[in-house]
Amino acid sequence: MSSPLDTLEHMESQPENPFAAFVDNQLIAILPTFTLENGVQIHQAPVAYKTWGQLNQAKDNALVICHALSGSADVEDWWGPLIGPGRAFDPEIFFIFCGNMFGSPYGSASPVTMNPEVGKPYGPTFPPTTIRDDVMAHKVILDSLGVKTIQFVVGGSMGGMAVLEWAMFGSDYVKNICPIATCGRHSAWGISWGEAQRQAIYSDPNYCDGYYSHDKPPNTGLAAARMSALLTYRSRHSFESRFGRKTMQPKPLSEELGQRAESLSQYETAAMYHNEGNKIRLHYTNGKGRPATTSASNSSASATTTSTGNGNSTAGMDTVQAIEGEATGLSSDKPTNNSTTSNNKKDDTAPPAVYSAQSYLRYQGDKFVKRFDANCYIAITRKMDTHDVARDRGMSYEEALNSIVQPSLVIGVETDGLFTTSEQYELAEHLPNSEIVIIDSFEGHDGFLLEFDQMNRHIGGFFRRKAPEFYKEHEAIVLTAEEMKSKASKTGEAEGDVLMW
């Protein structure tokens, strides 16, 4: 990594933010004061970034890469096969920069970083930010590093939104762009998916309007949001071909309840199986009174005071017992434990099938909550909602795109159901100096993070055509099957083998 100039203060770590440690060897610059697009000023604002390669003498060999929703500044983590000598992102040719966006938990100012005015993390008080804010902040960093000209800006999904905002600086500063699987303005479809995911977080009792603690976060809601998002990142064919109707071995009740499982009635057993997979349960020790709520993100629970609906309180009820992710009791009108079938034999209801597709979604949700924050997820999805290159620029959407005169390579994914190919063709139609490529992939939106060979060929070819002067002594390489494999990502959107769980 190259060293930054000493024009901005840098910090080495963020002790208040455990998520920043997921990114190795990043730098965190401190902006003394930064004014957001909405006029709000944030002070001592951290901006995390990574660089590869060296800035040339002319200071015109910069390559800016923009990350997606849950990504970080570490391009090697989520686009690893594309970076290296002879590859599309060649550090022997380019000075490569990737900045972490505001709202992300991976180092830049966000709900999990410190608000210097109060001496604690922002939490839900973190001000709304836009894609345009990110681009402006990252330009401050590039200015401090001495960059005069950006040869290429590349990014997919939310990163592609940033690519289009970078282009608005004009062709004297940004020479070429490559927006991937993205849009010039966020669609009603995308906004709706973001809203559904936020509502999943809000519904978690641990959310507490965003004022939750690190040791009791709304992990169940965040996991549900992630599961919902994953369905927009892949395609129906991707899931059908890998999972179909395959099932997992069901977990017997005795594994969770021990000997108590033997005493359950057929109705209690049915209710337990009915709630298989439910991670927020209403629990009882003896069926008396109204329930208290617990979340799977907090395995120990105590009795709480709740309204009974008639103005009375349930303070002093029996202690609630919870097993994380599994029920330990039933409602107050449960049948007695001696319910039997007509032949006086207890009905041993078979456990419900747990389909492989269900298991995969649960695994991904549980994995995600270990590396992401719920308030950050809300902040970033709201940021995406605001994206519109024409906003407050005094021109129509089409006029805004027409004003982007730089050579552009628009890349879409054939099976993308989130940022559809029609949106990519719309971009290409209105960007006056554009070409378009549609990636052949069954993987849906995530194809741009998984089809490394196609991405490397198309992006690298575009670079060579538009900036041949940088390639006089550099040959392109063809990625082997082994080289196309990415390491296990800490912060990336996609996993190549969805059966690895």
Please explain how this structure is put together.
With 501 residues, the protein is of the alpha/beta class. The protein has two domains: 9-193 and 369-470, Rossmann fold; 251-352, no CATH class. The protein is built from 14 helices and 15 strands. The strands form four sheets. Strands 1-2-3-5-4-8-9-14-15 form a nine-stranded mixed beta sheet, sandwiched between helices. A two-stranded antiparallel ribbon has the order 6-7. The longest helix has 15 residues, at 188-202. The two termini are 33 Å apart.
CATH superfamily of the largest domain, please? Alpha/Beta hydrolase fold, catalytic domain
Reading off the top of the CATH hierarchy, the class of the largest domain is best stated as Alpha Beta
Number of domains: 2
Q: What overall geometry do the principal axes of the alpha carbons give?
A: globular
Largest sheet: 9 strands, mixed
Structural Rg: 26 Å
Which oligomerization state do the chains in this entry correspond to? single chain
